[in-house]
Amino acid sequence: MTTIQTQPIEGQKPGTSGLRKKTKVFMQPGYVENFVQAIIDATGGAEGKTYVLGGDGRFFNKRAAQVILKMAAANGAERVIVGRDALLSTPAASNLIRKRGTDGGFIMSASHNPGGEDEDFGLKFNTSNGGPAPESVTDAIFARTKDITEYRLLGADDADLSRLGEQSMGGMVVEVVDPVADYATLMESLFDMATLRAMFAGGFRMRFDAMHAITGPYATEILENRLCAEKGTVINSTPLPDFGGGHPDPNPTWAKALMDEMMGANAPDFGAASDGDGDRNMVVGRGIYVSPSDSLAVLAANAHLAPGYAGGLKGVARSMPTSGAADRVAEKLGIDCFETPTGWKFFGNLLDAGRVTICGEESFGTGSDHVREKDGLWAVLLWLNILAARGESVAEILNAHWREYGRNYYSRHDYEALPLEQGQAIMAGLRDKLGDLPGTEVQGMRVKSADDFAYTDPVDGSVSQGQGLRVVFTDGSRIVLRLSGTGTEGATLRLYLERYVAGPDGLDQDVQQALAPLIAAAEDLSGLRATSGRSEPDVIT
Ligand code: VG1
Ligand code: CO
């Protein structure tokens, strides 16, 4: 065991979902080492502990895995369970952490951010419940990165991560496992596999775009091998270190080929895509796109049709910027609906306390209490289970949902990589005005309330401030503005827009047109486009 002197490295502050930086930043000498030691120190040391380790396969994944193993060994860990070739999707890692009763896990991913030597890398720590470390822990980790003086690293050969089974590293056991097996078993326990198999056997066609990211092997095993969907159902199924040069972000912009196919003449019945680390999902029906906020609401309303949720839901939770569509479902079901800050770590306590069963975010994230992360393939399988049970198309289900609950028109406009000071100035400009807004009129709409969202965790009472500026109008429409906490370049501003239409009229408008007054109001209030000189967002979802 070697103890190596080091000095604090600036900027190792975990964001919305772990530490994300340019890969070359992570490749600097001591960078991974400092951060990993800070995690170990801030969580009471590694002595005698068992961890899970895996990542989305992006460039530097294997290298970082060896460093983490040698550090765990040098810090006295007893065992590390690693996915073969250092691969694990984020939900599969969460499952392993829970199933094996471990002390937590290291997940190497920058999720939906592009990968490669000149792109992004990331590392996050999940606690023993399988979920991303809560703010109290990430704050302690960050504090430790600022006064770290040494780290421990075993001088040993690399582990052979291509070989399943146990091997020894110093006194520590490195246990290499199949990354897919336990996860696939978990999915089989939640969904009606026989009915799904029958649906595919009956000619149901789907396309799953794995975007050259981690879900390829998972989707191929579950959809093609176990459910017997046609070979070739899963495309871009081999995880690549640079995701084939694409953005592994399942949205209409970056999964355009899938969108085109689903809107085309010979579209299959159902389409889906997942992100770099497998926790996001986009769902598309033949000729119809399902917004993530609507997807959450439809899943909540129909989850009882799947065996794993036949007993009903305890409650639902959504992040603050996510539309209120799920709230209406919760109201009808007579269950609680919680509104949390952005990021899955805020759902952990509610899930652990048994107060919610299903959670979701507008950013293509849905999940349940089966793990403590959002789960892309889970959402796809739940949709399939609902389609099979109802015997209806995605369009029929969505239209029926809107007729029953009304429609929350919703869109997110991203302005990416603005100069940092400019992004902060735009936020500060709107924040300063919030107090004066209630009662005023913007674009013919009256402001009902305006604030900077703060959240008090109902389980442990912890408070998180500064979670997004929101302006709510008297008709229930909203504008939310916040700074992204996952980017690695400058500031990315996210503008979230929502308007509710009760129906029965006006349920099939063009989304951007339906939101036009809010888009104009957002500009009046924030001066976002004027200040940034951008005439339109980089990405609209
Ligand atoms: C984004 C999304 C947020 C999500 C987070 C991690 O964060 O908005 O909803 O939880 O990414 O997702 P931000 O701070 O950039 O808005 V993942 O799939 O990248 O781990
Ligand atoms: Co992700």
TrEMBL record:
It comes from Paracoccus albicereus. Belongs to the phosphohexose mutase family. SUPFAM superfamilies: Phosphoglucomutase, C-terminal domain (SSF55957), Phosphoglucomutase, first 3 domains (SSF53738). Pfam families: PGM1_C_vert_fung, PGM_PMM_I, PGM_PMM_II, PGM_PMM_III. It catalyses: alpha-D-glucose 1-phosphate = alpha-D-glucose 6-phosphate. This is phosphoglucomutase (alpha-D-glucose-1,6-bisphosphate-dependent). Transmembrane segments: none annotated. The keyword S-adenosyl-L-methionine does not apply. Its cofactor is Mg(2+). Residues 12-151, 183-284, 293-405 form the Alpha-D-phosphohexomutase alpha/beta/alpha domain. Gene3D superfamilies: Alpha-D-Glucose-1,6-Bisphosphate, subunit A, domain 3, Alpha-D-phosphohexomutase, C-terminal domain. Its EC number is 5.4.2.2. Keywords: Isomerase, Magnesium, Metal-binding, Phosphoprotein. GO terms for molecular function: phosphoglucomutase activity.
